[in-house]
Amino acid sequence: MADGNLIGRAPPFDWSTAGRPMTPEQAAELRALAEAAHLPAAFDESLTRGEAALRVHALRAELARP
């Protein structure tokens, strides 16, 4: 999911690993995006992989807005 595009992919809650803790890479990206968006509460180290994927997608969309 490096490109952030969820179109044509199974929703994160359908992934076989969605319930596992987020990866270190997801945590780093989510932390950076949360800081860039000035939303520190968006980062939560207890998120699952699926939750983190959705939050990363949402933050990318937020930051892409003009």
Radius of gyration: 11 Å
Mean pLDDT: 84
Tell me, briefly, the overall form: globular
Structural class comes to mainly alpha
Largest sheet: none
Fraction in beta strands:
under 5%
Low-pLDDT stretches are none
CA(first)-CA(last) distance: 23 Å
Order of helix and strand elements from N to C terminus: HH
Task: Determine the number of helices (DSSP H or I, runs of at least 4 residues).
Answer: 2
Number of strands: 0
3D structure, described in words:
The relative contact order is 0.23. This protein starts with 23 loop residues before the first helix and ends with a helix. It has two helices and no strands. The protein has helices spanning 24-36, 49-64. It is mainly α and 66 residues long. Helix content is 44%, strand content 0%. The chain has a domain at 21-64. Helix 1 packs parallel to helix 2 (49-64).
Q: Can you tag this structure with a few keywords?
A:
66 residues; mainly alpha; 0% strand
Structure at a glance:
The chain is mainly α. It has 2 helices and no strands.
Outline the fold blueprint.
Blueprint: H1 24-36, H2 49-64
Helix pairs in contact: 1-2
